[in-house]
Amino acid sequence: MIDFLLAHRPNITKGVELLALAMGLISFKKFKNTPIQYFILFLLYSVLVELGGSTLKNLHPGGALEEYQYLLKYRFFYSNYWWYGLFWTIGSVLFWSFFFQKIISNKTYRNILNISTYAFIICVSIYTLIYIDEFFYTVSTFNKLFGSVIILLAIVLYFIDVLQSDVILTFYKSIYFYISMSLFFWWIVTMPLYFYQKFVLIENLEYIKLLRLTRLFSNILMYGAYACALVFCKPEKPLRT
């Protein structure tokens, strides 16, 4: 069973992503003019990023199109590290900052998140320019760590905002709550394992299997929760201008 899950891990992940996207597209009209419409577009963005990353992986040495790599002038072009670094490690952080600023009612919290995001953009840009080779040939630990801090900050500020408002009385009905909890669970479970592997340089096969299975089940739970929330929850507030 474990070997089956590991062998089909990419397809299973894509399947749950497509499920969440399908539920989002079906529910798009229901959530029109609310922050959820941006969330649904982000699900589409996620699917496209994964599709692009898979395509680039086929161009990588050892990939399906390895015999055609002589046509490619630069090695980094057919590596997918820069793709995920730009559109996932950085792009997703910017989206979640934008999204949470739309649903957090406390202006001070929104400003804290906004300033932190600008600091993230500046620091990541400078770091990437200095260590440009790292950006093209591996996953930048600095960018991923800083991005994780921004996302967790956004989630924590949202939870504090809920605790300080009347929303706490009906939080279990809020689609924002389920999205935030799912995202929080995913980052809390997967990120420590990722950084532990990066810093300790673990080559243990069993640990790598554990890491991949943990990420797979976290993806299933997160995207499954997104799909259920989109189907069963109701719209809440209009977009903040």
UniProtKB/TrEMBL annotation:
Keywords: Membrane, Transmembrane, Transmembrane helix
Bilayer-crossing regions: 38-56, 81-100, 112-132, 144-163, 175-196, 216-233
Domain of life of the organism encoding this protein: Bacteria
Protein name: Uncharacterized protein
Organism this protein belongs to: Formosa algae
Organism taxonomic ancestry: Bacteria, Pseudomonadati, Bacteroidota, Flavobacteriia, Flavobacteriales
